Structures are given as structure tokens and as C-alpha cells.
Input
Amino acid sequence: MTLSDFLQTIRTELEQGNVETPSLDARTIVKARLGLSDADIIAKPDLEISSKQQKQIERDVKDRIAGKPVSKILGQKEFWGLDFKVTAETLSPRPETEILIEAVLDFVTDKDQPLNILDLGTGTGCIPIALLKELPNTRAVAVDLSEAALDVARENARAHGVEDRIEFIQSDWFENVPEQMRFDVVTSNPPYIANPDLKSLPKEVKNHDPILSLDGGADGLEPYKIIFDQLTHRLKEGGHAFFEFGSGQRESLERLVRDSHTNPVRVIPDLAGIDRVLEIKMGKR
Ligand SMILES: C[S@@+](CC[C@H](N)C(=O)[O-])C[C@H]1O[C@@H](n2cnc3c(N)ncnc32)[C@H](O)[C@@H]1O
Output
């Protein structure tokens, strides 16, 4: 079968399977499995797809219809223009987290500065790795409670050539981060789903992203309470911290920030207009 006919066939299957974005998913799977670019998809409609290739992709299509996200089918997800390995033990990076990367880069006026970054709850390592790619003299410490997630993050750091500038620490938030370490920038996209809301998450999320990456405790704010509590001891003078948060959490978070003797600098919305990233600084406003 030709590429063009095969794409049409699986697009129809995905559509009939009630997949929300059938064209995009069909293209993403075919491109990844056949090692093709967007340009190839347009330029090579007559490319012959072998029956072996078709069988593998048909299995992917079945998984997709059963609710498995494309990132978990392919074991990779693009973030900040870079491919990240993802596994069952890691959250698949989300586009809205790129807002956090942009916010940090706005704060760092001199990109050649030698900064120290701490990322709490690193998952695939997408946040510190994207930042290290942009900031050539910066070093990062990346923390996760999950050893399995840290293994994936280490692999991603190697794949993107930043392994010499990043240290991984298995830790319950700040617990195993050496006391004397101070940071210019702290970043975190912690789990922020309120426990009672977990069961109503889409099945793609609740069945395929690890619970440790989702569950933010009774009100979804538990990780922030723990992290904010220690922030003043961990940020350098003049340092800023950047947190992703969920819809409707802004006011509670700003209250928590004031209680922790740090100050909100700004809140940045995502592309859908939902408040998404909170930037905090030390000391008085
Ligand atoms: C929402 S995910 C974010 C992953 C990644 N930073 C991203 O933006 O795609 C939250 C991460 O926090 C980690 N985590 C959960 N509880 C933790 C804890 N107590 N200490 C450290 N990391 C924790 C999870 O394992 C998960 O990797």
C-alpha cells in the first residue's frame, strides 16, 4: 500500500475509534515508525509501505483507540523542539510547560551567565534539559522521588549532550538536596491534581501518566506548601522561582507564597488563556 493510501486508512480507523485528533495522530505515528519528516509525508505519497510496517502501525492504531497516548505508544514526546524519551514512569511533557521555559528565559537577561538551576519533580528532565540547551554556562540539579523517572531523565540528558552540566538527586523535594546548595533559579511542575479529582481525569492521563506525577494531595496544593516552606533558604539573593500550576489554583498559591515570605512577581497564562505559571522572588516587592 502507498503512504498516502495507508495514512488515509489509519486516519479513518482513528476517526471511527473516536480519537480526537485522527489526522495528527496518524501522521505522528507514521512519521516516527517510518523515520519520515513532515516534508516526506507531502513529497512521497507513493512510497510503498511494507506489510511488516503496516502491521506494526496497525498495532499502534489499536493501542491509540484503546486510549493510549501517542507519546506512550512511541516512547517519545517533543518538548521545546527536542525529543524526550518517555516511559510508564514519567509524565509525558505537556506544551503548556514550555510557558515556564519562556518565563525563565525572560528572567535570564544574560544567557552566558553561569547560573545554578534546581528543578523539583523533574520527570523526563524536560525542564532543566531545555534550559541547559539555551543557557550554555548554566548547571542544573534535577530532583525526583522516582528512581525510574531519574533513569529516563539521565538518558535524555545524555541524548541532548548536557549530561556534564546536570546532577540528578533522588529526593523527596528538598530532603536530599545538600543544605549548603543555593540556586539562582528554582523550577517545578509538581503534581497538582486534587486527590478527589483524579478519578475524573481523561483515561489517557489517569491510565498512562504515573499517579506520582499527578496526585497533589487533598487540595492539589500539598507539594507547593512543602516547597514554598523551604524556598527562602534555597534561593540565592535575587533568585527567582517558577512554578506551573493548575486551573483555578492561582489565588490559593499567591496566598501560600505570601505566607512563605517570598513574593509573587507575575502570573503567566498559557496559550488557552489559563493562568499557568507563577514567578516568585525572594524578599520584599
Ligand atoms: C507533573 S510531573 C512533572 C514532570 C516534568 N517536570 C514535566 O514537567 O514534564 C511531577 C513530577 O514530580 C515527581 N514527584 C512527585 N512527588 C515528589 C516528591 N515528593 N519529591 C520529588 N519529586 C516528586 C513525580 O515523580 C513527577 O516526575
